[in-house]
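G., the chain you wanted modeled:
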Amino acid sequence: MAAVSESSVPRYVGAAFVFQFCTSLAAGLLSRSMLSGDVSDVIGAAGADAARLRFIIMLELSTSVGVIALTSLLYVALRRTVRWMATVAFALWLAEATVLAVSMLGLYELLDLGATSVAPGSPLALSDAVVGSFALGLNDHAASMGMLFASVGALLWYSLFIRARFVPRWLGVWGLASMSLVGVATLLDVWDADLQPSMLLYVAYMPFELAVGVWLLVKGSPSRPTTIAATSPEALSPIDVRTADAADTHASR
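Predicted structure as tokens:
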């Protein structure tokens, strides 16, 4: 069986970083004004601009797919460094992507409620207000939970970046240090949303995913690429078989 080179994996990782950064940023900018305010205003906005909300949902689902692709590629690239760390990080980012996708159920419900609304601020039936509040809460709390999974997973991945020299050391340290601040903010938000952690805790990390993605796309990983080659007896030459047999005989004495 021919050897399969992994030299192209870092560039695929870079493309996945850039893709999910762009979709997440676009969804955040579009939803900032639409999903804030009183529940009646949100439902009214969903009815008045349903196409925009549908586009937000598609962007968020695309981000979820991007995170799944990213964590899968990172596992392929870094699993030989410290396998348990790569496995846990892979599972955490997979959980993040799952929670993000599930949170879109709340936005789909807002679409249904918005279809019966005339305009932002219009009177709502009590049942609609309760369901709308639940849908918004589902979306908000799921985002906090997903960010918690993302933070812990990122700390593991970026530690492996440094250990495996997957990216330059300064880039790995940037990601690790800035994500530590994000982790603190996320813990505060999960503990009590009313604490409202400062945006300063997020600022250092905001451009990181784009920066590391572009770096990997342009330059690839500075570490030596690994290969997966066939190791079955049929793929070994007679000399290799005799050498292996001799080593086994010597070890058994």
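Residues 7-228 form one domain.

Shout if anything looks off.
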